[in-house]
Every structure is written in C-alpha cells, then in structure tokens.
Amino acid sequence: MVEVTGDGEEGDGDDTLIAGRYRLLARIGKGASGSVYRARDPALDRTVAIKLLQPGDLEAAEQEAKVLARIEHPNVVRVLEHGQCSGRRYLVLEYLQGRDFHEWLQEGPSVAEIVAKFAAAARGLGAAHEQGLIHRDVKPGNLILEENGRVVVIDFGFAAPIAPREHDRVE
Length: 171
Known about the structure:
Transferase(Phosphotransferase), domain 1; 35% strand; seven-stranded mixed sheet; alpha+beta
C-alpha cells in the first residue's frame, strides 16, 4: 500500500491509498483540474468519489470543498471531506451511480421527463444561489441522473461568489 504520489494516475485496481484511508479503485473521470476516482472507505464500509487535483490547485480544491459544504440540497453533490496528501489536494465526495445528462439525452427521453429533470437541476443550482454562489460550468456532463432518478449537480470547481449589484439593493 502506498500514499498517492506522482501524477495521481494510480488507482486502477492497485493498492493506492489517499490519506491512509481511501483505497482508489478506478478512475471514472478526468478534467483540466484533475481526476475523479471511485474509491473505497473501509472505515465506514462505503464507496466514495475522490477528486484528486493537479499539483498547484491547492486553493481551488479548498474553495470547492468550502463551496460544497455550504450547500445542503439533494440536487447538489455532497462533500464528505477534503485535505492534502503527499502535496496533492483531494475532495471526498458522495459516489453517484448513474449517468450524465449527455448520455441520458441520447436515450431519447420525453419532453416531460426532460423538463422534470432539468427543473430538479435548477433547484440544486437555486440552492447554490441562495448561498451566494454561481456554478459557472453548467453543462450536461456536470448533471448526473442517478439510477434512483435523483438529479445531482456536480463539479463546482469554477464556482464563484455572486457579486452584489447596485440596483439589486433596497434601502
């Protein structure tokens, strides 16, 4: 068993551990800021997602963790923990079983289904807005439809505070 090192590309069934606890199982996504892995948390006997950021993205990882921790809504992915291991920031997120909206839309859902699912995503985004945050990267790949039908907004890595506008204030 090893701590995460190098480029973080370990985890395709080997014994890589994050923070001495989370065992990486398989990479399930890769983006500009890093990779997402399906991982196992043996302490709580559950599957989680680990977002392992590229070196140098320390501030971005901490910001994303804080952003997600402020939002408690069924249509927003939950952050369970964040930290640093071997110089790399990581986020531990709830593991979602399903497919993204891009895949789902290829299946040809009805207009009523599309409206209902996008309304659920909008509720999640509304919860973020209530916390003063704007997602800034809403796209089909960042909207997950779980097997149980729940819609979840993911990847708040580009989220930013909503800037107050002068004409929005009432005195």
